[in-house]
């Protein structure tokens, strides 16, 4: 999990961003949304669907990390975006197996996040 102080900085946009990062703000916003949805889904799945909960926790963790790397302009942000996209796709595939509303919403957000992260990583290459 991301420390609350850093979450607040990401949500408020108070971390400095250069022009390239500013263009990636949409991606950063999407990974924050994905992390939040994955945390909700994991909490709902923990008892009955442990594999889904594990993947959601992994996805939330990498999304928070990705948002942090992008918001501070890390030179490794694009590499993290690629990993984030892979994990988001795995999480979406697992969540799509379940009919629960929270799993379906999580899968949708994960697919969108994976697409934006791939686009961000490709644009930077």
UniProtKB/TrEMBL annotation:
It holds the Pfam family Csp. It comes from the Bacteria. Gene3D superfamilies: 1.20.1270.360. Keywords: Plasmid. CDD domains: DUF326. PANTHER family: CYTOPLASMIC PROTEIN, CYTOPLASMIC PROTEIN-RELATED. This is Ferredoxin. It comes from Phormidium nigroviride PCC 7112.
